[in-house]
Amino acid sequence: LPISPSALFWLGNAQYANKSYKESMANFQQMLNLAPTHARAPEAMLAISNVQSELKDIKAARKTLDDLIKTYPSSEAATTARERLARLR
């Protein structure tokens, strides 16, 4: 059976909490690929930037935050992304 976007989101969060960063990022990315308009899509992008930061890929984290702000400008996650981006510059 195909996995739902919501299940991928929560699985990604659980994996992140367990420091399984690459698996976490893969599930968030799969969720975004399946359902880019899902209510939790902006949060998934924020989570991907968190994973990239944990993996010390600050350039990729910045790009993800920029993409989040462009893609979901009025989301709560975009507000958080703007704050994080200011700290990563």
Description:
There is one protein chain. Helices cover 76% and strands 0% of the residues. By secondary structure, it is mostly helical. It has five helices and no strands.
Summarize this, please?
This protein is mainly alpha-helical and 89 residues long.
Order of helices and strands: HHHHH
Q: Unreliable stretches, pLDDT < 50, 5 or more residues?
A: none
* Beta-strand residue percentage: under 5%
The radius of gyration is: 12 Å
Percent of residues in helices comes to over 70%
Oligomer: single chain
Count of alpha/pi helices? 5
- Arithmetic mean of pLDDT: 95
How many strands, which pairing sense, and closed or not: the largest β-sheet?
none
Chart the SSEs and their pairings:
Blueprint: H1 5-17, H2 21-34, H3 41-54, H4 58-71, H5 76-88
Helix pairs in contact: 1-2, 1-3, 2-3, 3-4, 3-5, 4-5
Supply the key terms.
single chain, 89 residues, mainly alpha, 5 helices, 0% strand
